Amino acid sequence: MKKILLGLLIFILSLIHVSAQNKHFVVHDKVMESVYLKIKTPYKFGLVIVPDGDSKKADCLTVFKKNNQWYMSYIMFDGRGYETWIAKSTDLLHWSALGKILSFSRTSDWDCNQKAGYISLLDYHWGGSYAPQTYKGNYWLSYLGGRVSGYEEGKLKVGVAFTAEGITLPHEWKRLDKPVLTPADSDARWWEHATIYKSSIIWDKAKHTGHPFVMYYNAKSDTVERIGMAVSDDMEHWKRYLTNPMLDNQKGITGDAVIQKTDSVYVMFYFGAFWKDRNGAFNRFACSYDLIHWTDWKGEDLIKSSESYDDLYAHKSCVAKNKNVVYHFYCAVNEKGQRGIAVATSKDVGKSSLQFITN
What we know:
Layout: H1 2-25, H2 29-39, E1 43-49, E2 57-66, E3 69-77, E4 82-89, E5 96-102, E6 114-119, E7 139-146, E8 157-163, E9 174-175, E10 195-203, E11 213-220, E12 225-232, E13 238-240, E14 253-262, E15 265-273, E16 281-288, E17 295-296, E18 313-322, E19 325-333, E20 339-345
Antiparallel strand pairs: 1-20, 2-3, 3-4, 4-5, 6-7, 7-8, 8-9, 10-11, 11-12, 12-13, 14-15, 15-16, 16-17, 18-19, 19-20
């Protein structure tokens, strides 16, 4: 009897300990509210990247700064699949395309028809340099790759590419021979056996996970997309870190995580779709003290549909603060299915002259 009571007491104490640990990681409402007030962008400037013709679509972007010039990597879909482009700007509002950095390739390649790239290892501090860091003398990116043509068709995987030639130059980046994460990996989790979508890699020099490189990615096994984490010590070999997803809204899409840090709080910008009281897509955020445990924001969307150019979806975040103005870039999709890149700001900076072709 004494052994049973002792075992029960140990069990209860362990539950109390776990509960106390979990409370330590919770970001409280007042902090969440202060983050929201810091990052919100109520003024929509409008479209900044518009593809030529209805058959082409512009999508997921990464904004960074190099030599006092702003650059944007973004992806284009032309009916065959994704390729990755780069553009430049002096003011974050007006952009000029420079050319491709990941293109279609040989039909024997595992990623011949899909190469949607996202620049890695940026300075992620809020209002910081937003500069890309080099590792082993190279700039790096991760990308969504696949062999099947069409819009995100087939079992998509995560690839890694790198270059030493200059991150702002439109040239073909070198790619690792094989994908670094696939739905068929031996350590693939229960929620990612169908396909893997966007990835985002940061250099965590504090090593919260015990590893310097942390990748956030969204994937699905059924109809639900969720966000999980993988880690690496060398940017080439990756392993899953958690068994369960770190952000999961139980239905629809929770995806495209992008990380920044303000004071002691990490902010995960992400988008949701088809799990609220409407069918659209919208941008949200979550907060963390350790990059592992996340508290989801319960208040207003950061970005949602409100204009003719984003009346179907307003989603997929990339956020930068420059000269006391917050710029929230996102993928804008209208009811005709036209897809471009738009930006909203924390201060009124005027309106864009760019529009989708309507005829």
